[in-house]
Specification:
With about 240 residues, the chain is an alpha/beta fold. It has a domain of about 160 residues: Rossmann fold, CATH 3.40.50. Helices cover about 35% and strands about 25% of the residues. A 6-stranded mixed sheet has the order 6-7-8-3-9-10, with helices on both faces. The chain has a 4-stranded antiparallel sheet with strand order 2-1-4-5, with helices on one face. Helix 3 crosses helix 4. The chain is globular. It starts with a strand and ends with a helix.
């Protein structure tokens, strides 16, 4: 195992209950500071793979190491420390409806014990940059899908995590907003964060030429930047509409 790798999968398989495996013999290593797109048609296992990366579930078989530690051998009490190093953007946002946009984004910083002055300074700066300066006190039910996603992204990156995992983070946005927020991920990556973004948007992948992890029928293949595995005509039509 290479000490510079922040994520290592070795022969990982995952199944739900007694059903068939949704991930099969997945093996890869991600060095610290790398940036990968995760692609694959709907049902290929992208969300399942991401859930293993942010420790929402454990694999059925195989081995996973995060930050040099074997996840299988870690007691549950040790998992929160590792999860604290991982920022997650969920496809369904998972915002707290009773909190304002500002307070949703501030949660990781408050949990980390930062002063309230520093919390508000950093949150207001980030939400202003994402175009939500006039919605700081708005609650999620009053926001559009794209605005909710911007809040969710801001919450995931506010504490500058060592790993950022994002599941279709720009799916509810127009191309201009999506490209702007991808630049936020790029800047975070330049500062050392390892970034993994699941997306169907081939336009964004062409704009930001990073290597890709591609899932097909539960099996993973790594491709260099600029390489596009074969996709169906239907999927290409969907991507052009995103």
């Amino acid at each position: 195992m290479n000490a510079s790798n922040v994520i290592e999968f070795d022969g990982v398989g995952l199944r739900y209950g007694q059903g068939p495996e949704v991930l099969k013999d997945v093996t890869f290593s991600l060095p610290s500071g790398s940036f990968y797109f995760l692609t694959g048609e709907s049902g290929a296992g992208k969300s399942s793979l991401l859930s293993l990366m942010y420790l929402s579930r454990r694999p059925t078989r195989g081995h996973i190491r995060m930050f040099g530690k074997s996840i299988q051998n870690l007691p549950r009490a040790a998992l929160p420390e590792i999860r604290g190093k991982i920022g997650v953007v969920f496809q369904d946002f998972r915002l707290l409806d009773h909190l304002s946009a500002l307070d949703n984004v501030a949660l990781p910083l408050r949990i980390a014990g930062l002063s309230e002055n520093e919390v508000k300074k950093r949150v207001v700066e980030l939400l202003t940059w994402t175009g939500l300066a006039s919605h700081l006190n708005a609650r999620p039910p009053t926001l559009s899908g794209g605005q909710k996603q911007s809040v969710a992204i801001a919450r995931a990156v506010i504490n500058r995590p060592q790993i950022l995992v994002a599941d279709e983070p720009t799916g509810n946005m127009d191309d201009r907003t999506a490209a702007r927020l991808l630049r936020l991920f790029v800047e975070l990556n330049r500062r050392g964060t390892t970034v993994i973004i699941a997306t169907h948007n081939e336009g964004l992948i062409r704009t930001f030429p990073y290597p890709r992890m591609h899932l097909s029928n539960g099996r993973l293949t790594l491709y260099p930047a600029g390489y596009a595995p074969n996709v169906s005509t239907r999927l290409q039509r969907e991507e052009r509409r995103v």
